[in-house]
Amino acid sequence: MSLEFLWYIPNQVVPGHRGEPVAADHNSLETLTAHAEALEANGWKGALLGTGWGRPDTLTVAAALAARTRTFEPLIAIRPGYWRPANFASAAATLDHLTGGRVRVNIVSGQDDLAAYGDSEGDQAHRYARTKEFLQLVRRLWTEENVTYRGEHFQVTDSTVAPRIVPRGPRWHPTLYFGGASAAAERVAATEADVQLFWGEPLAGVRERIERLRALSAELGREHAPLEFGLRITTFVRDTTEQAWADAEARVAEMAANHAGIPQDSRRRTAVGQQRLLDLVARGEVLDDNLYTAPGKYGGGGAGTTWLVGSAEDVAESLRKYRDLGITHFVLSDTPYLREIERQGDQLLPLLAG
Fold first, then answer.
1. Phi then psi for 15, rounded to 5 degrees?
2. What span, in angstroms and rounded, lies between the C-alpha atoms of 38 and 140?
3. 47-76 burial string, b = 16+ CB within 10 Å, else e?
4. What is the reported pTM?
């Protein structure tokens, strides 16, 4: 299986994301370009751009970085309620044309500050029904002309996006990534996504979800190429195993000190996938060989909830085990971002080549 490795650009207005020490101009075009150029120089395919209301617009950032790079592929996170599908399909097709086919898209259906940008939605079933229609319509607009679509949430009549997406080998349009661990989310992924992204769960949990999604794809009559799978996780790499664990424990101790006085388990309402990660700590602080769950106790969220810790060889061996389950897309990161782009590009990626 051919593996792809991307990084993460947090795309935050406020500095200090996950301990990132760069504060001055942390989100300037110069700083972000330095990251994108380092990714090109150190063997990475591109980077996921984080999204959410109150953060810079991802498509705008992606366009700026693509204009300053030659091979960097932005994985552009977007929300169906923030964009109308025809508007997004047109904007993404334009950027794909201008970059020679470097656009990737991550559809995010988690809750956001919807009222701030004039959106509203109902319960989980409503949210994922709308996401399913968004995926269906965007794909059709990229691959068909004179599209007429009548859904419950979106409608277009005789719609043709221009410029047209140019097929490039097996790539007919930008790859559509999708996350979500609820039953509703998995039914959408099984039929409509190109890549299902998982958070850093133990191997057994990922294996079980892959098996379920493959069975769902068959049960629900998937009409596209087989669903592929990806892993979004923090990779905490140091020169030796001992140094990695010493540094990881020191960072968690600092997180705990900064977290003092804040309830560690408020049982707040959270996404199913995130709750799965938070529940892992009850099973132990280290699962499998080197999946560190302690960060989740002190405010780690998303890919920062669990870390793969160790030498480059340790972490590479763990990633190979995910590969053996069927994971072919990896979105890795750690802070300081620029240093780790270079360190992991130099030490980790060569161990995963081929």
1. -70, 175
2. 35
3. bbbbbbeebbebbebbbbbbeebeebbbbb
4. 0.94
